[in-house]
Structures are given as C-alpha cells and as structure tokens.
Amino acid sequence: MKCVDDFRLRFGKQELVPIMIGGMGVDISTAELALEAARLGGIGHISDAMVPTVSDRRFKTHFVKEKLKLYKFNVASADKSPVHFDLGRLSEATHNHVGRTMEAKIGEGMIFVNCMEKLTMNAPRETLRVRLSSALDAGIDGITLSAGLHLGSFALIADHPRFRDAKLGIIVSSLRALQLFLRKNAKLNRLPDYIVVEGPLAGGHLGFGMDWAKYDLLLIVSEIQQYLQSEQLAIPLIPAGGIFTGSDAVSFLEKGAAAVQVATRFTVAQECGLPAEVQQEYFKASEDDIEVNTISPTGYPMRMLKNSPAIGSGIRPNCEAYGYLLDGTGSCAYVIAYNREVGAHAKAKKKTKHISVLDKTCLCTHMRNFDCWTCGQYTYRLKDTTRRLEDGSYQILSAEHVFRDYQFSTDQKVALPD
Ligand SMILES: Cc1cc2nc3c(=O)[nH]c(=O)nc-3n(C[C@H](O)[C@H](O)[C@H](O)COP(=O)(O)O)c2cc1C
Q1: Cβ distance 297 to 363 under 8 Å?
Q2: Contact 255, 192 (CB under 8 A)
Q3: Can you name the residues that pair with 405 across neighbouring β-strands?
Q4: Which site among 26, 333, 351, 358 is 20 to 30 Å from 405 CA-CA?
Q5: CB of 263 closer than 6 A to ligand 1?
Q6: For residue 296, is it within any domain?
Q7: Which residue ranges in the chain fall short of pLDDT 50?
Q8: Residue 56 covered by a domain
Q9: pLDDT value at position 352?
Q10: Is residue 207 part of a domain?
C-alpha cells in the first residue's frame, strides 16, 4: 500500500515531498508553520494578507499606528475613500515578513507566499504590484495567487528580474477560471508553474457560490487534467480541500496529481497562528457547528464556525488602521452595511452603541483579532487526530507530527501524538 512519501513533486531538477501547507491569512499560516514544512522537505505558505499588521506583531514595527494617526481625522466619517496605503511602507512591511522568513529557512523544501487578490486596498493594481514585486525582491521561492484571481496579475510583475525564475502558481476552482487565466496571459509566454485546484470543502473563501455542495473536487481535477492533456500543457496540478488523511492524498497522487495542498489539519498545530483557546474551539466543533455564509465583504462565500465572534458583530469599521477590503473607489460592503444600520438606528432615535450587522462582517478587524474562525469542512474531524487531556482540553499537535502523518500514513489511519 502506497503512502505520500512514495511520490515526489518535481520542479525541474528539484524534488519535494508532495505536501504543500496552504496559505491561511491573517497570519494563521505563520512563518514558523511554513518553515517547518520547508524543513521537512515540503512547501509552506506564509500569507501577505494585512502584512503591515503582521510585521507589527512580529517585529514591533508601527505601520498600523502610523496609518491610523495619518487618517485619524476620518475615523467618524462614513466615507472611507480618502484612506490610502503608502506604497513604500507596504513594500517595507512585505520585505520584513518575507525577507526574515526566507533568512530563517533551512531544509530542502520551499516557502511560498499566498497573495489574496481580493485585498483591493483602495488601489487594486498599484498595491498588488507592490506586494508581488516586494515578495520577489525579498527572496520568496514562489507566489500563489488566490481569491479573486486577477487575470492581469502576471503582467504586473512581467518586468521583474525574477518573473521567470520564481515559482508562480494560481488557485482555481473550475476549468473555466483556468482557461480564462491562460487565455489572458498567453502573450506573456509564461505559464503558471503549478495550479492549485481548490474544491468546495476548503477553508477560507470559496471559489463557488452558495451551491458549493453540488461540486466535487475529484471531478474538477479530472476535468482540468483532461484539458491540460488535450492542450499538451504539463503543469503540475495540486488538489486542495478536504484532503484529511495520507490515504486521501495518495488517492489524488495515484490519479496524477503532483502534490496536495492541505490546511485544516494544521490549524491545531502549535506553530499555527490561531490562539490556543481558538484552537480548542476548532477541536470541539461538530459538523453542525460549521457553516458557509456570505458575510465576507469580498463577495465570496466563506466557511467558518457558527460561534465566530465576527458573526453579527457591528463594530465600527477600522479602515483608517486597516482598509484592506476597500475597493478601487474606497468602498467596502461592510462599511455600507454598517452605515445602513447606523442610519436606521438614528431614524429610530436609538443609541448606536450596540449595533448588530448581520449580513456582513468587518473582516479586517476580525481576522486581525482571530475572531473570524474560518475553517475547512472537516474541522469536525480534528478531535480524532489528537488525545483528550485530563482537564478535558485537546492536545495541541506539532506541525511535524501532522506533516509526517500525511507523509507516511496508510489505510486511512491518523497517528495520534505521543
Ligand atoms: C483557517 C484557514 C484560513 C485560510 N485562509 C486562506 C487564505 O488566506 N488564502 C487562501 O488562498 N486560502 C486560504 N485557506 C484555504 C487553504 O489554503 C487550503 O487551500 C484549503 O483549506 C485546503 O483544504 P483543507 O483545509 O480541507 O485541507 C484557508 C484555510 C483555512 C483552514
């Protein structure tokens, strides 16, 4: 019976253990987690979501405070369009996060950065160009473009000296999205180095509508595989979403996948950025505690625990400090929903202290504070991957334990920690 370690992901001459830990923003997939994956011969992701905030936390910089100071005059305003990112500071923050991570890398594996293109930051093209090119400058091994795949992203960095040597990958959830991307980028003569095919059971934002349950990862992967074969394109395919055991991974690898991308199992690793008490919520969750909803201002459905503090919260938007979801006109669906509720309260002459906004959430603030508990569908199985301690809590795992379990387990077994 085969295990994941019987396979290798090949990038040119380089051979890797075919396990890629997916990007989890905001700093849920920490540098420590990515570094472990690289040390063990696989691929780890850091995320560039809200990177100034992450830099502040990691390196005691003051990007957020400085931005808030600059835009303090606007805090009470319903119009957030004056709030902009300083591109130089954004680049500095990316350099800090990516550069220091790469300096710490040991082992044969690689570290990529997950770049969520839906973070439009009130200047989508300019900020994305800075994020991508700064990550390349800082020595990242590769970039995975996710959530909101901008068809023109490769072109933004086409003149960067590392455009052809760094690994560039995309996440798609359908053949159609892939075809659009390839068509749009044909003239650059630069194919993606890998394609992550993310199915409907993944964590974070989904590339499906609320009818996500109709879709099946295996079917999407085989459709894309057939298309690539017919076009004679040899691009490694990396399925993601609901691959919970080594055997699940092997079944994809045997069908021709180059590697697998996994995340949920690592949310309860000690190297993961989620606070310990939130990790216990993930362990405790039952299937009924998980939902896909539409409260993300990005417009994409998102999977999360139903008891996430972010759900229904009506906090004042924090765009002066954050503002990552402001679109090109300085608007965000949460800001609109919040202003609507404030207006309704004012009309009813109610105090605005306890506003609740049910249809959208202030994703920046809640992700920053680990109050939006996004998770994969199989989060309810995490309790079966560890031991219960005497005080009733669940034992946190090491990333190495989870990685090795994926790498060596067979027969749908999950190894429990010592
Ligand atoms: C907590 C969490 C946060 C995530 N955040 C992101 C993200 O910021 N960007 C992204 O492209 N994917 C994100 N994902 C998706 C993962 O990178 C990965 O593709 C997917 O969850 C794999 O499925 P699995 O969790 O069932 O293993 C996230 C997943 C989880 C569990």
Answers
A1: yes
A2: no
A3: none
A4: 26
A5: yes
A6: no
A7: none
A8: yes
A9: 61
A10: yes
pLDDT value at residue 4: 98
Alpha carbon distance 401, 44 (integer Å): 15
Mutate to test the pocket of ligand 1, among 24, 118, 381 (most ligand atoms within 8 A of CB): 24
Rounded to 5 degrees, φ, ψ at 210 are -70, -5
For residue 351, the model assigns a pLDDT of: 66
Count the domains in the chain: 1
Query: What's the residue count for the chain?
Result: 418
Q: Which whole-number Å values give the CA distances from 143 to 137, 150, 156, 211, 347, in the listed order?
A: 12, 14, 13, 29, 48
102 is in which domain, residue-wise? 4-274+392-408
Please indicate whether residue 114, judged by its CB atom, sits closer than 6 Å to ligand 1. Answer: yes
The CATH number assigned to the domain holding 121 equals: 3.20.20.70
The number of the ligand 1 atom at minimal distance from the alpha carbon of 198 is 19
Q: Are 403 and 42 in contact (CB under 8 A)?
A: yes
**Which of ligand 1's atoms lies nearest the C-alpha of 274?**
1
Distance from the alpha carbon of residue 241 to the mean position of ligand 1, in angstroms: 8
pLDDT of residue 149: 66
Ligand 1 centroid–CA 102 distance in Å is 21
Give 74: exposed, middle or buried? Use CB within 10 Å, 0-12, 13-18, 19+. middle
CA 76 to ligand 1 center in whole angstroms: 34
242 within ligand 1 shell (Cβ under 6 A) = yes
Encode pLDDT of 89-118 as tens digits. 999 999 999 999 999 999 999 999 999 989
Q: Kindly calculate the radius of gyration of the chain based on its CA atoms and give it in whole angstroms.
A: 21
pTM summary value: 0.98
Q: What is the pLDDT of residue 353?
A: 66
The minimum-distance atom of ligand 1 relative to the CA of 199 is 23
